[in-house]
């Protein structure tokens, strides 16, 4: 097992070194494009978050509280992605303790996104299927509890690895290293645990989204009133599913990437790693303000107002319920 780990780490290091050489020969424009993409959407997320803070009603309604949490989470994830990616490109070694901190928040914020989508879908399900009990079931307190549970569940997987690594080799946390999750894999059971958590995690979230979608569609067809609201709700949940697929692709692509690191050419490995970073890691985090913010008739006018720096006054076109 130790020899296998050393072989994998050595192969990955060779690819990282080749990647650094490639960056000096021209494809640095790819990295710049990815960073600019992330910065643009962090800026958009910041404006959207400011929009939600600008009105008391946005700060009070659970669905906007959950949306604000998603914006902050995705922005933090984008920053962490850029930081870790730049460290990989530059072959930057950091203390293992600092690496554990980076990976903990990177993994937790990554897992937060689909869980947040599931909770938002359940909120829409309750709003459409149980409108009379919506305010009783979904409120500020329940939204806060949900966010707390999201962070707890999302941190368990990597938290176990970090704690186990600390118990087995506490002295190693003072050493410098190339930061990667594989450095915290000591025993075979950790790989099984990691895969098991991922399968359980996304199967559960997918089941929640499908359950919510089906029930909202049924409610939209059977109810004579609020059909427009129900239609928009099940369209939003369908978008949740599409975004979840992008999140799941990260784990599938990660498995392929590790296999390519052992068998394929460095050029192919580099190109696929870049595609993974740009389209699978960054893109889902960039979709949140577009999917949820700009589709909301109450948020969109205010968002456009702040984007234009107050140049043109706009009025909300819908009443918030």
Automatic annotation (TrEMBL):
Record GO cellular component, one term: membrane
Domain of life: Eukaryota
Name of protein: G-protein coupled receptors family 1 profile domain-containing protein
TM segment ranges: 31-53, 65-88, 100-122, 143-167, 197-216, 237-256, 276-294
InterPro entries reported for this sequence: GPCR1_Superfamily_Member, GPCR_Rhodpsn, GPCR_Rhodpsn_7TM
Locations listed in the record: Membrane
Keyword Nucleotide-binding assigned: no
Keywords (A to Z) from UniProt: Membrane, Transmembrane, Transmembrane helix
Keyword Phosphoprotein: no
Gene3D superfamilies with a match to the protein in the record: Rhodopsin 7-helix transmembrane proteins
């Amino acid at each position: 097992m130790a020899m296998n780990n050393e072989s994998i780490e050595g192969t990955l290091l060779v690819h990282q070194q080749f990647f650094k050489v490639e960056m000096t020969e021209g494809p640095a424009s790819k990295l710049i494009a990815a960073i600019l993409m992330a910065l643009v959407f962090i800026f958009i997320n910041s404006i959207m978050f400011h929009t939600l803070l600008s009105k008391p009603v946005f700060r009070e309604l659970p669905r906007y509280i959950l949306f604000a949490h998603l914006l902050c989470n995705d922005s933090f994830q984008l920053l962490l992605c850029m930081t870790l990616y730049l460290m990989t490109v530059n072959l930057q070694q950091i203390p293992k303790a600092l690496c554990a901190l980076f990976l903990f928040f990177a993994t937790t914020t990554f897992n937060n996104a689909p869980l947040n989508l599931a909770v938002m879908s359940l909120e829409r399900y309750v709003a459409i299927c149980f409108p009379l009990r919506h305010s009783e079931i979904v409120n500020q307190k329940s939204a806060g509890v949900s966010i707390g549970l999201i962070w707890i569940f999302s941190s368990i997987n990597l938290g176990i690895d970090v704690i186990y690594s600390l118990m087995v080799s506490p002295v190693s946390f003072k050493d410098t290293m190339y930061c990667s999750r594989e450095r915290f894999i000591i025993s075979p059971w950790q790989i099984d645990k990691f895969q098991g958590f991922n399968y359980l995690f996304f199967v559960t979230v997918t089941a929640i989204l499908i359950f919510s979608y089906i029930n909202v569609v049924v409610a939209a067809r059977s109810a004579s009133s609020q059909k427009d609201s129900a239609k928009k709700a099940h369209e939003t949940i369908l978008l949740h599913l599409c975004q979840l697929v992008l999140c799941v692709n990260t784990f599938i692509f990660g498995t392929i990437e590790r296999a390519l690191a052992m068998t394929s050419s460095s050029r192919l490995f580099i190109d696929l790693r870049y595609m993974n970073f740009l389209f699978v890691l960054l893109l889902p985090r960039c979709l949140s303000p577009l999917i949820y913010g700009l589709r909301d008739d109450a948020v969109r006018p205010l968002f456009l107002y702040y984007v234009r720096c107050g140049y043109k006054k706009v009025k909300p076109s819908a009443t918030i319920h």
